Amino acid sequence: MKRFLFLCLILTALTQRAQAQDRGNAPSVELSGGVNHSTFNDEGADCLCWLKFLGADVIFYERGPLRFSSGAQFRGSGSEYKSGEDFGEGESYFFETREQLDYLYFPVDARYEFGARKIKPFVRGGGMLGFLLSAKSKTTMTFNGRKDENETDIKAQKKSANFALNLGGGVSFPLGKFRGTVSMRYLLGLTNVVKSKNTPSAQTRDLTYSVGLGIPLF
């Protein structure tokens, strides 16, 4: 069902691109970067916040307030798990694990802008297919003030692809011949990223704040 939905999104985007070429609409590219808040939906997972979002979206169809785009996005996803206890008198034990997964996503996105003023609010949504680039687990154990850190490659334990829905909104505004954007996006992962059936399932949940710059290609 997930693959069928993503295929429908791709076919729709390709159809709109063909129509755009017939009408002579000039494509543009929007470059963006920002902060990504990420977590897994499993019990006990805490949020990670890092500067790991870069995107390049090609707007290949535009008609009035409606735009269709596709491109590539680099996202850092993951979660943090903490446990421990302070016994007093200088005795304590703390354990922290950070799972960090880097993905390259290919989105198919629709955006609708409101109003006729220079500053325009917009909503957006679509589907994304992500491919895992790397996965690491960083463990920090602190016992009575002594810290021990260890990093492990866990890519073999994670699935190589992640299908997700992307929803969000923001505002766009003119910057000379370019156009700037400030936006927020929520990525809802639909794939259990864990391979093992004996491990609790985990799906990605990302909240991204970004700024972007739209550049005409012609």
Plain-language structure description:
With 218 residues, the chain is mostly beta strands. The chain has an 8-stranded antiparallel barrel with strand order 1-2-3-4-5-7-8-9. The protein is elongated and about 65 Å long. The relative contact order is 0.20. The N terminus is likely disordered.
Task: Provide a short characterization of the protein structure.
The chain has 218 residues and is mainly β. It has one helix spanning 2-23; strands at residues 28-40, 48-63, 66-88, 91-113, 120-143, 146-153, 161-175, 178-189, 204-216.
Can you tag this structure with a few keywords?
about 220 residues, mainly beta, 8-stranded antiparallel barrel, about 65% strand, disordered N terminus
Helices and strands in order:
Layout: H1 2-23, E1 28-40, E2 48-63, E3 66-88, E4 91-113, E5 120-143, E6 146-153, E7 161-175, E8 178-189, E9 204-216
Antiparallel strand pairs: 1-2, 1-9, 2-3, 3-4, 4-5, 5-6, 5-7, 7-8, 8-9
The averaged pLDDT comes out at: 86
Q: Helix/strand-derived class?
A: mainly beta
Which range best describes the helical content: under 10%, 10-25%, 25-40%, 40-55%, 55-70% or over 70%?
10-25%
Strand portion: over 45%
SSE order, as H and E? HEEEEEEEEE
Distance between the termini: 38 Å
**Unreliable runs:** 1-24
Question: Which strand order do you get reading across the main beta sheet?
Answer: 1-2-3-4-5-7-8-9
Give a short account of the largest sheet: 8 strands, antiparallel, barrel
Oligomer: single chain
* Overall shape: elongated
